[in-house]
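Pilot study result, target chain (75 residues):
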Amino acid sequence: MATYTFPYLSPHQSRQREPTEWELSLADAIEGAFAKGAHELDALVAALNASRVRPQDGGKWTSENFTALMRDLGG
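Predicted structure:
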C-alpha cells in the first residue's frame, strides 16, 4: 500500500527555533497533567504547582501567568 504524502504536514512547521530545556520540561509536565485528568485550567495550574517545573521567575503558577506564557509561546 502506498503512503499518502500530500499535503505534507509537520507538527513543527511553525516553529522558529528549537525549544529550550525549560520549555521541554514544561511540555512534559503539561502532558503528564492531561494524562492524569487535569483538563480544566485550575486543575492544570494545580498540577503544574505540584510538579518540579516552576515559572521562569521562580514563583507559583497561576491561571494568569500560565495563559500569558501560552500566548507568548504561541505567538
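One observation from the pilot: The mean pLDDT is 89. A full batch analysis is planned for the follow-on phase.
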